[in-house]
């Protein structure tokens, strides 16, 4: 059992006696398929225990990627113990407060944390992994096509109960994946959204980074700007873009950013429908309207509107 394995790991790490009191609390948030437990050994600081299987290829990347990002100066939880053979790790407990807790707060309250998030994203831009470092497969045209198929299968066909054949054959969607997959110059998190940014001591910390790969940085930026969990207004996004440009001294190319936003929102809708219907987590179904609203806005007056409007 994962809990038993993690209990053994924490006793080994802290050199605890078998009778030492240790409380364990499951952490239900997240959809990665890993078992994550908050561990409270009496008299010691809390730890987060992670037990993973190899059913998903990116799970094995969690520890090496975390150590790599920490060495590159990003704010990530410190890995305190790992046992690759047993697929367990103990990491720093940063608490439960993430960026979604600031939804609806004045911009002045949110601004320092978005600044910190953009600083983390900017560091990824200038970070290069060693040649022998194993990342997930890069974001190429085939990967973007896979995300589109994920959207069609789970959102269009399962959630909406509509035929997705026309979308699979749509040249506009095919063109989107081809444009975005033409180059992959930067490392990307691939799920850079508010639930994966924990807040502590005035800083934000990046989690769930095991999907790190080479791709377009605009994908991560779009993930934050068009985050369905936050449902930003147009005014919010304008302020966030101004902050991004201040932090990075760079202005994103608008057509590429919008293409990435379309792609990301389709992926999110596929994920929400899959988790809601196939894993019976209705909370994710409640996020669908915000993602649909965001997608409708970003495709307005573009060729993609004709392709997708029937499904929105």
Give structural notes.
It is globular, with a radius of gyration of 20 Å. The chain has 312 residues and is α+β, with helices and mostly antiparallel strands. Helix 4 crosses helix 9 (254-278) and helix 7 (217-225) crosses helix 9 (254-278). It folds into two domains: 2-92, Phosphorylase Kinase, domain 1 (2-Layer Sandwich), CATH 3.30.200.20; 99-311, Aminoglycoside 3'-phosphotransferase, Chain: A, domain 2 (Alpha-Beta Complex). The protein has helices at residues 2-14, 62-71, 107-125, 141-159, 165-168, 171-180, 217-225, 234-248, 254-278, 282-285, 288-299, 303-308, and strands at 22-26, 35-41, 47-51, 79-83, 88-92, 186-188, 197-200, 203-206, 213-215. Strands 1-2-3-5-4 form a five-stranded antiparallel sheet, sandwiched between helices. It has a two-stranded antiparallel ribbon with strand order 6-9. The chain has a two-stranded antiparallel ribbon with strand order 7-8. The mean pLDDT is 93.
């Amino acid at each position: 059992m994962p809990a038993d394995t993690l209990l053994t790991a924490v006793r080994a790490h802290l050199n605890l006696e078998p009778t030492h009191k240790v409380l364990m609390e499951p952490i239900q948030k997240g959809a990665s398929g890993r078992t994550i437990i908050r561990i409270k050994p009496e008299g010691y600081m809390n730890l987060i225990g992670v037990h993973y299987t190899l059913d998903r290829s990116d799970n094995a990347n969690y520890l090496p990627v975390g150590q790599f990002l920490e060495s590159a100066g990003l704010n990530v939880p410190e890995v305190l113990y790992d046992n690759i053979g047993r697929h367990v790790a103990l990491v720093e407990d940063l608490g439960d407060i993430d960026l979604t807790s600031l939804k609806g707060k004045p911009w002045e309250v949110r601004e320092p944390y978005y600044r910190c998030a953009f600083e983390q994203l900017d560091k990824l831009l200038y970070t290069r992994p060693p040649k022998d470092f194993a990342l997930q497969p890069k974001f190429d045209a085939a990967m973007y096509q896979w995300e589109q198929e994920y959207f069609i299968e789970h959102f269009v066909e399962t959630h909406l109960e509509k035929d997705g054949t026309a979308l699979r054959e749509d040249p506009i969607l095919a063109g989107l994946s081809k444009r975005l997959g033409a180059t992959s110059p930067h490392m990307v998190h691939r799920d850079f959204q508010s639930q994966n940014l924990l807040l502590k001591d005035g800083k934000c910390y990046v989690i769930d980074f095991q999907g790190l790969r080479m791709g377009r940085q605009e994908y991560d930026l779009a993930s934050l700007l068009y985050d369905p969990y936050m449902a930003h207004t147009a005014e919010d996004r304008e302020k966030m873009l101004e902050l991004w440009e201040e932090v990075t001294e760079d202005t994103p190319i608008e057509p590429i950013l919008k293409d990435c936003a379309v792609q990301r929102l389709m992926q999110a809708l596929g994920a929400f429908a899959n988790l809601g219907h196939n894993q019976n987590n209705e909370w994710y179904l409640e996020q669908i309207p915000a993602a649909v609203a965001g997608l409708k806005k970003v495709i307005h007056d573009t060729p993609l509107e004709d392709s997708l409007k029937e499904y929105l």
